[in-house]
Structure formats: structure tokens, C-alpha cells
Amino acid sequence: MLTIALPKGRLMDRVLHLLKKAEIIETTGYAESRKLIIEDPKAKLRYILAKPTDVPTYVEHGVADLGIVGKDVLRESERLVYELLDLGVGKCRMIVAVSQQSNLIQIQELGFSAKVATKYPNITTDFFRSHGIQSEIIELNGSIEIAPIIGLADAIVDITETGTTLKENGLRIIGDVCSISARLIANHASYKLHYKELQDILEKLEEVCE
Amino acid sequence: MLFEIPTGTKDFLPFEARWKKEIEDNLHQILSSWGYQQVITPTYEYLNTLAQGEQSRADYFSFFSEDGDTFALRNDFTTPIARLSKIALSQEPRPLRLYYMGNLFRLKRKERKREFWQAGAELIGDGSKVADAEVLALAMDTLEKIGIKNWSLDISHRGIVKGILEDSKLSSEAKKNAESLLIKKDYADLKKLVEDENSGFDLTLLPKLRGSGDILDVAETKLTSPKAKLALMEIAKTLDALKPYNYKQINIDLAMVKDFSYYTGMFFEAYAPGVARVICTGGRYDKLLSNFGATEPAVGFAIGIDEVMDSLVFQKKDTASISLPDLGILYSQENYEEAVAVALKKRQGGLNVFIALENESVPPAKEYIKI
């Protein structure tokens, strides 16, 4: 039996539809379930419904053989897992934004020791370092958009699908960090020990992701 | 005040310590039975010695000598053994067959042991495929005899990925990126990189080149890099030399990459149920010894003792059991001398014996006698 960790929240519906399309699950009803572990004995699969940030942890430690998680969470976690497939759903961008009132046009103008608010301190540190910008990271857990408005930070690093929320909160994009989508990840040992079962799932998903 | 032990360390309590020793006794037996001789190297060395090994393992507990030199706790056994084979054992006839067992220390191990235990073997001064096969077979014999079930072992060759990269027109930065994408098996981004650079298309074929021996024929027809094809022939020769040992469980995984390792030729990795990371790994390293003297070929492997224990626990086999002393001798104040004499005699007879004053709290034993 293989165990797959699925991310609750933003990605859940899209991931379940994809799994159904690939004929790996029969129903997308898991989203409404209050259960945290769901067994599908017929398919010899077991699902753990996890907080997205915990998905790479479960997979690295091998309590889940496979996992599905956004590239943003994955990169931030710095966990040692294999990234087997870009599922192409949950597409968005990770961006740098400043207040509409700010006269900054590009990230280079952020200058010395810019304050940046984000949910992604590791990615943000790497990004600014690779652009030669000293930044002071302020880690937040939600409502990142208000940080520049209330004067907590000069800029934010966050993900956005359409940019609407940013605009509504008086923010303007000045730089791109990376593009994001959901990834299929695997535990190192499971990849070798359950190679056949794992390839079977991988191939089914590859077909619907083309 | 509570005296804690540092993160990443572990106490082995009596039942675990006994079980660990049984596993280690077993490993001594297995490794010796192939004609390997144990060496014991210092727990700490000059940092400069250890730094001749893998750059990616630049991860040490380090400290200063009274003269201001930097010492470091050993973080690998292969490098100290390369040193001693070129210095203390430089005049010994080749090949050298050496094995080791002991603790290693690495500082930056998130959620893992910073002090951990390893055993392994090095075959030094033999560059042949017969030597490759011997070390592979020894690694598999070790997995079997130590009681690991359903392990999986994959072989590749440094020249596959290195050869494809060298034969491609990828920029040096793209080559580095491609290698780190292969380490993560991030095939989505790898494909994109190759398409963007319009070179190195062999890399995108590697993910599907995993399987039993016939994968080599498939790879031979699909890969275009001449250097990678040479590496394929090397793997085939190693497998040929391995045939008489009769192992059926071997796979080839051409997409396998070892992070900045010192391996120069064939290398392998084994996994076992119940362990989320590699349990046993090894390969050929023909350049490492030249850091300490004349160039000499070498091949070796290591097995993680902590990982072996994890896998056996998962299999629920031979795990920790409490072994009580055979005999407790209970005495009263006036019989103390006699109790000591009887205990000595019983010990000479091969029993594990302690003495205890009657009426006080008496530790557990299989049997007691009263004096």
C-alpha cells in the first residue's frame, strides 16, 4: 500500500479533480471529509490530508511515499525529496510588490537593508542575496498585503494568481521571483522500494498533465 | 536542574547497547570473512586532512589545538583510510583490504543524528572490475547476513551524467543547474532547461532508464553521448564480473547522481524498508588517494548502523531484548567473603554474576542463590 499526502486548502479541489481525471481516485468527495486519513483498499492507496507545509515533511521522513504540494511550499521547506512531476495546476507567480504610493520601479532600487515581509523567508533570502540586495526579512503568517500599508515593511514577497488582491490592497508588482505550480514529490527510499507502483501513478498523472 | 543531552546525540540503554553490539559483532564477522582487516583511525584529525574528501561534506565539529591548528571530529571514514593507506601502510603489498566501524560526527543534520554509526570496507590498489564486483557483492552479503529483507540496490557510473554534460553544449552554469535538478529528480525543470539551452537532450532520457540489466541495451540505443556510452560499457563489465555471485536484486538507475562526491567510476546506493534514506552506499574513487601520495585506484562501501537498527525494528526482527544476568548471589553481612569467592568461581564457569546484600533492593537476575 502506498501513502500519498495531499495538501488541504487552496490546491485541494484542483488536485482531487486531477486525481479523478487520472482514474487514481473515484470521487472528489475527500475534500468534504473531516477524516485526516482516508483508505482506498481497492486501489491499495492511502491518503493523508495534511497542512500544505507538512506535506514535504511527511514525505522526507517516509511516512508518506508520495505527496502533492505547491512549488512555493516545497522550495521554502528545503526538504530532501524527489520532485517527479509538474502537475500544471494551481499555477501562480511569486512576486515582489510595493505600495502604490512608493516610487520604486525595480527591485534594485530597494537599496541597502530593505525590509521585506513574507511567508517565505528562505526563498526571499535566496532571491535577494542572488540579486546582491541586503534585505531584512520579516516573517508573517497571513495578510502579507497589509505590511507595506501599515509601515511594517518596504516590500512584500508573496504569491498571486491574477494580481487582483494586490491591486485591491494598494500594491504594485516590481519583480518576479519564480512561477509556481503543484508538484508530485516522492520519498527517496520509496522511489526505489516501490518503483513499479510509483511509476504506475506517475504515468497516469503524466497522461492527464500533458 | 535537568541534565539534557545535546540535540542529535543518543544514549544507548542496556538493551539497545547489547543489541547494537550484537549487530556490530555480526558486521566484524561478515567483513573479516571476506579477508578484510580492521583499522581504527583517530576520532579527530586535522581539518585539512578531512577536507581532502568530499567538498559537500564540509560539515564538521571543529576546534583548535594548543598551537592554533584546526582539528575536526571525523565526518567520514574513507578519507582517513585513504590517508593511512598512503602513509602508515604505503609499503604494504597491494591490494589492501581494510574495514572500519565507529562513530562519525556532522553538525548540520536537521532532524537527524549528529553522532551516528557506520561500518564499511575499502579495497585499495585494485582498479579492476573484479574489485568493483567484490565490493558490490560484499555490500549485498552484508545487507543479507545482517538480516535486512527486501532491500533494493541501484548501480550507476559517474561517467553517465558527467559524460553527457561534457559532450553537451550547455553553459557551465546550466551544467551545474542540470546536476542539481537530477539530484532532486526535478524532471519538469530539467526538461525546460534542456529545451531552453537546446542541448543535453540525453539528460531527459535518464529518468526512464531505470530497471534490471537490459536497461543497458535500451540506453545504448537511445543515448547519443559517446562518453556516456563508454560508461555504459563499464557498467556492463562490472555486472559481468558480478555474475558468479548470483545476486538477482540489482537494478540500474542511470539518473542517479551523487552530490559532489569523490566517486570516479561505478557507484551504488541501497535502500531498505522502514528507512527513509539510503542505508548503504559506495563506489569507485580513483583520485582521492592522490591527495595523500601517488595515485592509486580504490573502491569501497559503507553501511549505516543506525539505519540497520531502524530497518530491523521495522521488520520487528531480533530487536532489543533485555538480557538479565545469569545469577544473583544474595548474602548476609557475615557471609560477604564467601559470597565474593562463590561469585568469582561462577564467573570462571562462564556465568554473568553479581552479588547483592539480602534484604536490600535486589536487581533482576535469571536466578538467585542464597549464601
Describe the structure.
In chain A, helix 4 links the parallel strand 7 and strand 8. The model of chain A has no long low-confidence stretch (mean pLDDT 92). Chain A has helices at residues 12-21, 55-60, 71-77, 121-130, 146-149, 164-168, 188-193, 195-209; strands spanning 2-7, 37-40, 45-50, 66-70, 82-86, 92-99, 114-118, 135-139, 155-160, 171-180, 182-186. Chain A has two domains: 2-90 and 181-209, 3-Layer(aba) Sandwich (D-Maltodextrin-Binding Protein, domain 2), CATH 3.40.190; 92-180, Periplasmic binding protein-like II (D-Maltodextrin-Binding Protein, domain 2, 3-Layer(aba) Sandwich), CATH 3.40.190.10. The longest helix of chain A has 15 residues, at 195-209. The relative contact order of chain A is 0.21. Chain A is of the alpha/beta class and 210 residues long. Chain B is α/β, with parallel strands linked by helices. Among the domains of chain B are: 14-151 and 272-314, BirA Bifunctional Protein, domain 2 (2-Layer Sandwich), CATH 3.30.930; 325-370, 3-Layer(aba) Sandwich (Rossmann fold), CATH 3.40.50. In chain B, 36% of the residues lie in helices and 20% in strands. Chain B has a nine-stranded mixed sheet with strand order 1-5-6-12-11-10-7-9-8, with helices on both faces. The longest helix of chain B has 20 residues, at 14-33. Chain B is elongated, with a radius of gyration of 25 Å. The model of chain B has no long low-confidence stretch (mean pLDDT 93). Chains A and B meet through strand 5 and helix 7 of A and helix 7 of B.
